Amino acid sequence: MSGQGAALRATAAVSLTPVPDWLRRTVADTQSLAGKDIEDIALAAGAVVGALDALVRRQERWAGAWRQRQALSAAAATTRQMGRAEDEAALRDAVLLTRPGDDVGPAGRLLLAWRRLATRSTKDLLMEKNLAAVLEEFDHAPDDEVVSDRVEDLRRLRAGAGTVGMLTGAFIAAERHGFGRALGAWLADALLAQRLGWAHAVPLLGAEVALAMPPGRPRRVASVIAATGVETEAERAKGLLAAQARAALRAVDLFVDLERRADRLLGVAPKLRAKAADAVVDKLLSDDAIVASEKIAGMSDRGLRRLFDRLVELGALRELSGRPTFRIYGL
């Protein structure tokens, strides 16, 4: 990449990304929602999602790594919400260090569910076969009748619901059969991507799954929900819209960070002498992380490790595990 090209990309990033501070303050936390009408929260959420949409439509070469990094964050939050101890590093290990065909375990399957959202074509996400697989990855037994009902519910939401109705409806569709808010977040992200016409979904709400019904809400509202088991429609909608806005803000911030890292990698790529260097760079730009034992364009483990070490020395790549062996590399 020429210096002029890099400068133009940096200028574009500055013009698109930082999101105005007033948007961040509007949805910063539960307290910031107090006294605000749902219309105010919807306006803020729409503005942030609009900024995110502009970034998605740039179709950057490294967007795959960005979406998968978002999937990892969603999986880690989902894992915590389910009472499990695995963090992002453990989730990476579960998937990357497991031999093909072997079981990655419950936590690893959660990561696969969110990666499915990030990597499958948007038009396929809400088909029956895919939803059945997602239910299994979320540790729910798939039922053909239930899956068929949910597909029909989601089609109606996609076709006729407004933004707020689509968002809340996705969670209701999941909760109706006891599937929980993690699956609701997955469905809401899929519906948003389809509504906006994205080729691939960006995992968003999974990282906010514990906040989808905001904790620390005023005691009066919390006591009503505890006593009745029912969340008021306005409270649900405000909490979900704010969660979606916060998630989109984080995605925008990560986009800015990974753009800088990807530009560094692309800047040093022409200096690499390994025959398969271009294929390795493409893989690094497409995935959250890879291991040196991965088979890429016929490169040996030793050759791939040498290339990774060279990229780390050049500041174009990070070693993510912190281990001397079974090392993992990514932007």
From TrEMBL:
Keywords: Plasmid. InterPro entries: DUF1403. It holds the Pfam family DUF1403. It comes from the Bacteria. This is DUF1403 family protein. It comes from Nitratireductor thuwali.
